[in-house]
Each structure stands twice: as structure tokens, then as C-alpha cells.
Design brief:
Blueprint: E1 3-7, H1 14-27, E2 31-35, H2 41-50, E3 54-58, E4 67-71, E5 77-86, E6 90-97, E7 100-107, E8 126-131, H3 150-163
Parallel strand pairs: 1-2, 7-8
Antiparallel strand pairs: 2-4, 3-4, 5-6, 6-7
């Protein structure tokens, strides 16, 4: 299963929409977490028409933020549930894939105690986190060399240490040009 996280920086932009859909098709993304969608109701309908699958959108009234999930129709999952934690900023999908419960968290902006809702999740649940935190926790793997938001870095590190003291982080070192 291929899971991707992408800040699309404006889902109403026709070029952004085309490029995102091309990426999904080219890479054969099974689940996409997107941040900064800023979509309207008509734009959401357009995304759903142009790319078949299951879409979940979470927006704010001002359309200044927004997150979305796309689940390909080819992914053999069951018991798919979408839940907004903070509209436009934090939402999750929960499902079963190959007998494994998976919780995917999509975060646009981080704030204190973002992960407290996880206390109610099953201990054997596999957790996947896609984000746009604008901060750097691991200078070797993160694409941002310097932390652009020191407060975000501090809050994220604190919550990860508190809620996930025995976590594993997979990833290759970021290649900088």
C-alpha cells in the first residue's frame, strides 16, 4: 500500500488539481493525505468527479486551511471511518487492511495536545502520521534544514515523546541539492 502526504497549497487552483491527480495516477498512490486544500463545496465535488475513489474533506469556514484524504477504489480495506478532530486542521481515517487495524492521522497545523484523542485507540493499532508541521525534528531526514517554527518543533517533540515514547521512525536521509 502506498501512502503519500502532500501540502497542495490550494485545491481550488486548476493546475494544482491536475498536478496532484497526475501524481496520484503516476505513483499509483493508494491513500493520499493532503494539507492546505482550501476547497469550496463545488471544488470538492469536482475532485470527486475527476478522481474516482473515496474522498474525505475537512475545512474551516474561512477556507484558509483544510485537509483531505483520498482512498483509491483499488485498496482492499474494510471498516473505513473518517473523524474530524479539529475541522480543517486535524482528522483521521481508521480502517482494517490485511487483518491489521490502521489509523492514519492527517495534520495541517500542530497545537498543544494534538494527540490526546489517541488515548482511546486500540494498543495494537498501526499509526501513520502525515503532516505539514513546518518544523524540523530530524535534520537528517526532514526536508527543512532549519526549523521554521521553533514553537511547533517544541510542541511536536513534547507530544511525540509523551504519547509515543517507543516509536520507530522510518525514512531515508533527505538529499539536498
Amino acid at each position: 500500500m502506498i501512502i503519500a502526504s502532500l501540502n497542495i497549497n490550494g485545491g481550488r487552483n486548476p493546475l494544482c488539481k491536475v498536478q496532484t491527480m497526475q501524481l496520484i495516477n503516476y505513483v499509483k498512490v493508494d491513500i493520499l493525505l493532503s494539507q492546505e486544500t482550501r476547497v469550496t463545496a463545488s471544488c470538492m465535488a469536482d475532485w470527486r468527479l475527476k478522481l474516482k475513489g473515496t474522498w474525505f474533506f475537512s475545512n474551516t469556514a474561512s477556507l484558509s486551511a483544510g485537509i483531505a484524504f483520498y482512498v483509491s477504489p483499488h485498496v482492499p480495506i474494510s471498516s473505513l471511518v473518517f473523524k474530524e478532530i479539529v475541522p480543517g486542521y486535524l482528522a483521521v481515517i481508521d480502517f482494517i487492511y490485511n487483518c491489521q487495524r490502521i489509523l492514519i492521522v492527517n495534520v495541517y497545523a500542530f497545537f498543544t495536545d494534538s494527540f490526546t484523542f489517541l488515548k482511546s485507540s486500540h494498543p495494537n493499532t498501526l499509526l501513520c502520521l502525515g503532516d505539514d508541521f513546518n518544523c524540523t525534528l530530524d535534520p537528517v531526514r526532514d526536508r527543512n534544514i532549519h526549523s521554521t517554527e521553533p514553537l511547533s518543533t517544541h510542541l511536536l517533540q513534547h507530544d511525540l515523546d509523551h504519547h509515543f515514547p517507543r516509536r520507530s521512525v522510518f525514512g531515508s536521509p533527505c538529499v539536498r541539492k
